[in-house]
Amino acid sequence: MMRTASILVLCCLLLPVLIFGQGETSNWYFGNGAGITFNSDGSVTTLTNGSIDTFEGCATISDGFGDLLFYTDGILVYNRDHKLMENGSGLLGDPSSTQSAIIVPKPSDSSIFYIFTVDTSAFTDDPDIGLNYSIVDMSLDNGKGAVTQKNIALLEDCSEKITAVLKDCSDQSIWLLTLAAADGSNATFDTYHAFEISTSGVSQQSVKSTFQGLNIEDPRGYLKVSPDGKKLVSANMRDGLYFYDFDSATGRVSNQQLLAAAGNSAYGVEFSPSNQFLYVNASNDSFSEEGHRSVLIQYDLLAPDISDSQETIDRRNIYRGALQLADNGKIYRTTAQSYLKGTPFLSVINNPNLKGAASGYEHNAIDLNGRNATQGLPPFIQSLFNKIALIKNQDGTKATSASICEGESIVLEVDIIPGATYSWEKDGILISTESNRIEILASTEVDSGKYQLTISTNDPKECPIIGEASIEVVPLPDSSLLLIEQCDIDENNDDGITLVDLEQVINEEDLVFTFYETLEDQANNISIPNPESYTNIEAYTQTIFYEVANRLGCSSTGEISLGVNPTLVNPSQFSPMMACNENEVGSALEATFDLKALQQSFLGVEVAFYENLLDASLEKNALDENIKTSSKIIYARIEAANQCLGVETIDLVVNPLPEIIMDESFQVCSDGQPILIEAPDGFDSYTWYRTDTVQQAVLSNETQITVADSGTFRLEVGISYDTNSRSSQCLSSKDFEVISSNRATFDDIIIQDLSANNSIRAMVSGDGAYEFSLDNQTYQSSPYFENLEPGFYSVFARDLKGCGITEEKIAIIGYPKFFTPNGDGHNDTWQLTGINDDLLKSVITIYDRYGRLVRQLNVEDAGWDGSYNGQTLPSSDYWFRIALLDGREFKGHFTLKR
Length: 898
Known about the structure:
mainly beta, 6-stranded mixed β-sheet, 5-stranded antiparallel β-sheet, 3 helices, flat
């Protein structure tokens, strides 16, 4: 099917474009090092070499050939090498100013550019320095430019908005506009100032347009003139969105209208290239880090009531942002997350000359390769975008782009203007200067490209008229003979009749195929209803007819040769494929199978895997490269050049893991014999590891190991599975610990004796945990014993892990508090108890109350009988002193009773 398009374009003489060239807007730098460049065909390439870092305002300028000259955030100026321009710092803009800067070339001087800047007051003590300009001379620094004069004052105070538009072509003057107070002082804004930039330079006096009752206090928001120079829009955030007429001949602003912005604060604004539609990016102006909402609105400026014509193009939770028309006729939008945080994307209105949803808004259309767009985009002289469309659609609307099919024709045409000259270019190359119209016979893709028409009149006051059209020639779909060789793998696998997926011949997503059983059906448009599960009507071989259409609806016809081959489904040489269970013991057996690796085992053919024969037949629901499943049979469909060669079955077998039942810890006595640890029986392989070393050490491959000291270990066992000459081994491991212990060593026994409460405390050391006893029968965890009678004791320390008992003998010293030497056989003498020569350092000395030594005793003596030199001493208290080998010394007293 072929379409023939003959599209006529009528040209009306609109306010023309500036005659500098068409490349001045080719490069944009903005945000946090973000940038884009526009190619000759209207496409966009992301740039990541920018040096700019700004929250909002920025400006860029290129030459007429699209080569970058310089760019700025209003304070710093960067040259084409992205280095700071000579003398290029300290300008009086502000990165937090909406339109911090705009760059305007000096008429009739290709070397001089003016950078106009507007400041803002970001905090209480931050002064607002108003409107200033600086001068750049591009002839300096080897063509990289230098700032020769800085910060020439025009207004003491003004809003954060500036824009520029061509005055006329006779003297090439340009208007620079901003909003401020009438006298330029620090007051509410009610006056639009238009400063003329001519061949003489920048006029210090402005043309003022003051509006009674206009009291703008919020300086934020963009200011734009329509490309034809006839309309002006001013966004003032919380103080309203205003629309005006503008007279480019006089610089006067008139006919103020307040437009509703869907209950939001207007920030970014832009006109469509046709000057019919106004786009506004408005927000709820939230100052928090969250809760941002923005709406993109379109107004029809030809509607009787412009406010009522508004349509919402997009609404989402994002921060405020700029809108900027580009040379390709599209409008770009920033979509920041908050004031401080941008996003690495630009959104785009693809067809801004069309109404409502037809404008083709595309969110996050341009990927900035990790560089963030913030709130601002670079403004330009709006007249640079004043271009007429060369294509007229059937509904009367105009367009600058069209897509046609190969072999179709398209006509680009403008009205004949007496005495005018016509210059046609394709992709920037001159192709004709003789005709007022051109017919493109679009038979091949080489006719695709960007076409531009420049019409120059005899009137020097009229600027050249620029028309543009981007043409895409789409090749017709290939209609060659297609082949399908299908395996007959249904219940009757040798009758030549089976299910076939005819759509397997589709190799491009944007192609639409329609299938027919006969040429008659094709002529009558009776298509096969379910081509994805078609049953052939002729055994073994059949011809299917098809029509294929591309995205433009242009189509070609062709044939499919369908062959059905009897096929036996046999086990594969790679079956079974075994894997080990991945689930916990006690759960269903499941494992992950690497079908990609299995696929690579089939050499020289294409293989896909399916759960059932129906899917394999129709090539539907192919299994993933990795699947986790229980044991099952899958089907491998084998093809070469899209021709089915056969189907094989493959058993996926999930083998259980070996289960190790053994203790998690073992005990070894470090002062005894090593222990023997035996693995459970029934496994095919054993590997013992020590795991508390830097590198796991293999200890043994036997069923048992001996261990002499503590540490952490692992036992790994394996079970081998052999099926149909294919083997696999499943491994499990068990971590365990060997805990070391030993018999206690007595470090000290602290004895408290010769007291009212005799006690001992055993101090021991060793690797184990111990319990204590004085009789080797009854044990306690505490090493402390009290209320002990004087005498000789054995202290026992027993290892709780069974490594043995350690014994230490001690004595607790005591003495009687009185004695009665009356010869009755009871308490007739006085002597220490619980002591022997091993403890005593010196003899026991006894004194009377006057300190007279009355007796010295050894431990072998029977004791003192209460006499002194054969004389009986009276009843009284007597004192004694002893010194022990362990360093202790005791003094005490007792009573002699008669």
